[in-house]
Write a structure and sequence with these properties.
This protein has 334 residues and is of the alpha+beta class. It has helices at 54-65, 74-77, 172-191, 247-270, 276-299, 315-333, and strands at residues 5-9, 16-20, 25-27, 34-36, 44-47, 79-110, 116-136, 195-222, 225-232, 238-244, 302-305. Strands 5, 6, 7, 8, 9, 10 and 11 form a seven-stranded mixed sheet that branches. A hairpin with a 5-residue loop joins strand 6 and strand 7.
Length: 334
């Protein structure tokens, strides 16, 4: 039986090219351009074998209890109420981004007389990168899982008869649209062109899969309040969880934070007579310390890890927000 071929036009020169069924790339016979062929190949469905048992899931959860700023008596007081495995569906997409991003960067330098000069430096970056995207294909509820972290494991459907499986509730088209948007955004970020003047990017979907992944759910109580953790059924690592914070850690943090932050701000004011820049640095440093202290004190009563929809900002996220605000202030000061 002869291979099925389709006639298309080269987007570079307009010449007619023939594509054999199953091919993903070809060379234009007229202009020698390399062309990537994208077609609807359907959705591959697979499931990873559950390799974690109940005891291992409990052990991983209890180890997580003892890490970080959680209540010191959690291992002694906490009581496990439920431990069970489930299969969650995830969309997994492989995409390729090809194209160009052109623009320029602004570089500043100060001459011997203290004058600041700006120079536009042209920049042209070719993009040819592959990206992997994943998102949960159902409503995860309070599990705090929204993306697939592990992509390797033994595939098997043997566990489907024994482990509850969540049905997919999101569409293939929506998942593809988000995968393309994610790949395009990551490609722009990888180019590191601060001022873009021209962009020509093509996003190609190489593969789309539905992956059913095993997750262990561990629910427990601490002083009459309910908490939970989830454990990866392939790697045995904790993926998400909620745990009680420790009041002592909160008290120590608020005491030390306000003392150090106030001292930094006071030193900035004292040094203002030497240089105005020192006052600004001192006030900013004091504000950063006080803000981080406030965020920790406010959210320290419950420790949250994972991809929850309404998750309190972490210390690292708070620092990034403050760094962005500091850069804005520096630009205004200049």
């Amino acid at each position: 039986m002869a291979d099925i071929s389709v006639g298309l036009n080269c987007p570079a020169c307009g010449g007619a090219v023939s594509v054999v069924e199953g091919e993903s790339t070809l060379l234009c016979p007229y202009c020698s351009s390399t062309l990537f062929i994208e077609g609807d190949q359907g959705v591959t469905t697979m499931a990873f074998k559950n390799r974690v048992n109940r005891e291992s899931a409990l052990k991983a959860s209890r180890l997580w209890w003892s890490r970080g700023w959680k209540a010191r008596d959690l291992k002694r007081v906490g009581r496990t109420t439920e431990v069970y495995p489930i299969y969650l569906p995830f969309w997994r997409a492989m995409t390729r981004v090809a194209g160009w991003i052109c623009g320029y960067e602004i570089r500043r330098h100060t001459d011997s007389k203290g004058r600041v000069h700006e120079q536009k430096v042209p920049k042209e970056v070719m993009i040819l990168n592959d990206y992997r995207f994943s998102e949960i294909a159902t409503d995860p509820g309070d599990l705090g899982i929204r993306s697939l972290r592990n992509f390797a494991g033994e595939t098997s459907f043997a566990d489907f008869d024994m482990i509850p499986t969540f049905e997919a509730t999101t569409s293939k088209d929506d998942a593809l649209a988000r995968a393309r948007s994610d790949a395009q955004s990551r490609a722009r970020s990888s180019a590191k062109v601060s001022r873009v003047t021209m962009e020509r990017l093509h996003v190609l979907t190489r593969r789309l899969s539905m992956v059913y992944y095993p997750i262990w759910v561990v629910r427990y109580t601490y002083r009459d309040r309910m908490y939970m953790t989830t454990v990866d059924g392939v790697t045995g690592q904790v993926l998400s969880g909620r745990a009680p914070g420790d009041p002592l850690f909160q008290s120590l943090a608020i005491t030390a934070g306000t003392s150090v932050g106030g001292l930094a701000a006071a030193l900035g004011i004292i040094m203002s007579g030497i240089a105005a820049e020192l006052m600004i640095v001192g006030l900013l440093a004091g504000g950063v310390i006080l803000y981080i202290t406030y965020r920790f004190f406010r959210h320290g009563s419950e420790i949250v890890e994972g991809e929850f929809k309404h998750k309190p900002a972490s210390v690292s996220q708070t620092i990034k927000e403050l760094q962005s605000a500091a850069r804005t202030l520096q630009e205004a000061y200049r």
